[in-house]
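explain this chain.
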Amino acid sequence: MIILTGFAGFIGSQVLRDLIYRGYSVIGVDNLSEGSSIKNYIDVLDDFTPIYADIADPKLLDYLKCVTEDIDSIIHLAAESHVDRSWNQIDKFVHSNIMGSINIAKIGLAYKVKRFVYVNTDECFAGSPQPFTEESIFSPQNAYASSKASADHFLMNYYKAFGLPLIITHGANTYGPFQKEKIIPLAIENILKCMKIPLYRTKAYRMWLSVEDHSSGILAALEKGKIGERYCLAPSEENELYTHDLLQMICEIMGKNYENVVQLVDDRPNYDLRYWMKKDKAVLELGWNPLKNIREELPALVEWYTKNKSYF
């Protein structure tokens, strides 16, 4: 039996489907906040046990005990993840990303789980010399990344002090169906609604990892990762694009003129200009091999959002 936090989110729902497909029994925990939706998992609702609760709720362990006495592993994916919103809602991010992670760690220790996978972000390394690797020093540049980095430190403390069987992954910018708020769905939605697309003035590089590849990396860490180690989940380097070029591609696919639909806005505070991460350790130790290419996937993704306008 596996606990999956954040199962109703964009990445979490993909991990949920992949776990079910591989035959795992899953208990999902999610509070259905901004990034979550029942639409993300309605097709597999009968194949797992959902618990709708705050991961920071101290009574969560009691809720889980009512469902099962046996938990083998935990994948902790739930988090507040919207960078712009994090500056104005720091208390919420601290509550969910830090206090929630500590609570889930305590649950892992209570159940004496064999493996605890914490899904972190490449943004923790933002101020480090590039390229980012598992040895890079944390230097988060925004409130979201700071909360994720803080949780990482707390979980490492639990690993060293109490034997929490911790494995950490750092995922690159992820794209795919069912995503909300981020640049790709926002651009498609705004074009469909004949609205301008807000874009930061300064060109920034991002590595784009498909949600399927990200999920396969998380499960590879679960099944093959070494306790106490971290793994960077990045796509091949041809999947690194300027955000401006990415929007240009979306505009071309949707038959729109880039200059007519994009509105340049001031950069957010501490705007990170590049996340360049190396996947060598994950490939070598996990046998992980990301297969998708965003240039090839983007037309189908635009079509999915166009056909699923109600998702917005």
Remarks:
- The mean pLDDT is 95.
- The two ends are 33 Å apart (CA to CA).
- The longest strand covers residues 115-121.
- The domain at 2-175+209-237 is CATH 3.40.50.720 (Rossmann fold).
